[in-house]
Design goal:
Number of helices: 3
Shape: globular
Number of strands: 10
Low-confidence stretches: none
Order of helices and strands: HEEEHEEEEEEEH
Helix content: 10-25%
Largest sheet: 10 strands, antiparallel
Strand content: over 45%
Radius of gyration: 15 Å
């Protein structure tokens, strides 16, 4: 089992505060991850993308894993729900249950799972008359460590 404290230590070693946009690679026992950051400080990170790769493929089915993660990932602004599981393609999509509304805009998380265990999390901003676009989301380092732990456990 991966401990959030171990992940937090690795984040502190590899995510440099105050250096602006960066891609950080963090690894721990049983996983590796890549973080595309807009900025980071001592307390929090503004993330554009989080990609987690377990060292071993999961034993649970993609559907089981999707449902488990929808209930386990609790540190985001909105809870996640399973949108689609395509076992044939080896992919599952989870999104925010209730996207955040900002005027005519909607912001939501999207978690894409792959059959080999990889998980990619992004936040999107959508508008009624324009395509969605990735948008950064801010998360404390402690909450990020828990999130990574949740995605690989």
């Amino acid at each position: 089992m991966i401990l959030a404290d171990t992940v937090r230590q690795s984040l502190d070693e590899h995510v440099r505060p105050g250096s602006g946009a960066q891609t950080a690679h963090v690894a721990g026992p049983g996983f590796s991850c890549e973080l595309d950051l807009e900025r980071a400080d001592d307390l929090a990170c503004a993330l554009l993308r989080l990609r987690v790769v377990p060292a071993q493929p999961p034993t649970a089915s993609l559907r089981e894993r999707s449902q488990t993660l929808a209930g386990r990932v609790t540190g985001l602004l909105e809870p996640l729900q399973v949108i689609e599981v395509d076992a044939g393609q080896g992919a599952a999509q989870l999104r925010s249950q209730s996207p955040a509304a900002r005027g005519d805009d909607r912001a939501y998380y999207e978690l894409m799972l792959e059959g080999d265990g990889r998980a990619t999390l992004r936040r999107y901003l959508g508008h009624a008359d324009a395509p969605r676009s990735p948008t950064p989301f801010t998360i404390t380092r402690d909450a990020l460590a828990k999130l990574i732990t949740d995605l690989v456990s």
